[in-house]
Design a protein that fits this description.
single chain, about 350 residues, alpha+beta, globular, six-stranded antiparallel beta barrel, 17 strands, binds zinc ion, eight-stranded mixed sheet
């Protein structure tokens, strides 16, 4: 794993609906590798390589959970809405970055000092409606002078660290890790028997919207989704519901709210992993979904399998993944893409006989 691209993607801002920085990084990264780069109507990034054989799409969403400014008070504090799902307890006293028309502005989600809280207040999580962002301004006029306005997107302050030889900590690894892997696979693939699409979708965190629009725009024959999934290997998790561990391999998603993998395709990938001695974990998730939950049904549907990197501290300011899980998934999917062809595709799509 080469972390340069991942670090660039993590340090950029890309709250759902505001993915321009990510789009530009991926464009620069793949413009010389692709035969064509296009965008769907919502702005999802689509790079194509080759023009023969089955159309194979590899997909990662480029947006991240964040916030949007909804009100500026007379005394210069910003109220905000959450974009995507957050736990209020993960937000207080964290530094944020606001992307304004005139550049970036730093701020903090203000907290109340414990000295000023009753015991009952301390026991009660604060609703995000009661929180505010402080950018150091004294008045609404000063906020305007700093270029901040209602509707500006906000994301956690960018951060990236390699903690050990295996562990990477950073903002928005959900799903910049998937974007980095999609780009890496696209660059490596030299299979002239398929038409390969690298897709980075917008607005996944608010309802798989870019998955729907890009699936319709490309109409691929088969889709592999790469995302992240809750790792349950820290204190406090129910290990039956959340079995994934960092460092034990990537996970193949067996079931979620909007998706069940194509069973033949799943079996081929499981067999391939076994033959290559690449570790694979399995997970189910009744309370969420990946872009696989649109690619499977749009435009007549197609075989889809979703892989997820086990991830600690999802939808917070920093999350953690394992480099070996990433590398193992890269090795497996690299081989899958290198060996896929029309004959294999016909076998996957044969439902009778
Ligand atoms: Zn995700």
């Amino acid at each position: 794993m080469e972390t340069n691209l991942l670090k660039q993607l993590v340090m950029a801002s890309g709250t759902s609906g505001d993915e321009q920085e990510i789009r530009e990084i991926l464009y620069r990264e793949l413009v010389n590798e692709a035969d064509e780069i296009t965008f769907d109507g919502l702005g999802s990034f689509i790079a194509r390589k080759g023009s023969k054989g089955p159309k194979v799409a590899i997909i990662g969403h480029m947006d991240e959970v964040g916030f949007i400014v909804k009100h500026v008070s007379e005394d210069g504090f910003l109220s905000f809405d959450t974009v995507g799902s957050w736990w209020n307890q993960s937000m207080l006293n964290h530094r944020v970055e606001i992307r304004t028309g005139a550049g970036k502005v730093a701020g903090i989600i203000g907290s109340i000092a414990p000295h000023a809280l009753s015991e009952a207040d301390k026991a009660r999580p604060m609703e995000h409606d009661a929180m505010f962002i402080d950018i150091g301004a004294d008045s609404a006029e000063m906020v305007a002078e700093m270029g901040v306005a209602v509707g500006d997107f906000v994301c956690p302050e960018p951060n990236f660290a390699e903690l050990t030889q295996d562990r990477i900590l950073g903002k928005a690894l959900d799903n910049r890790a998937g974007c980095a892997l999609v780009a890496e696979l696209f660059k490596r693939c030299e299979n002239g028997e398929i038409t390969l699409y690298a897709v980075a979708t917008v607005q996944e965190e608010v309802g798989l919207r870019g998955a729907q629009t890009s699936a319709e725009a490309i109409a691929p024959d088969i889709a592999i989704v790469i995302d992240t999934m809750v790792a349950g290997d820290t204190p406090g998790f129910d290990r039956i519901k959340f079995p994934l561990k960092l460092g034990s391999g990537a996970a193949l998603a067996l079931f979620d709210k909007r998706y069940i993998p194509h069973q033949k395709l799943k079996q081929d990938l499981v067999d391939m992993a076994r033959n290559m001695a690449e570790p694979l974990q399995f997970c189910t998730m009744k309370t969420g979904a990946t872009d696989g939950g649109r690619y499977n049904v749009m435009g007549g549907g197609r075989p889809v399998v979703a892989f997820c990197l086990p991830t600690r501290y999802l939808h917070a300011n920093s999350s953690m993944i394992s480099r070996s899980d990433y590398d193992s998934l890269a090795t497996l999917l690299d081989h899958f893409l290198a060996t896929y062809n029309a004959e294999k595709h016909a076998a996957i799509c044969r439902y009778i006989g």
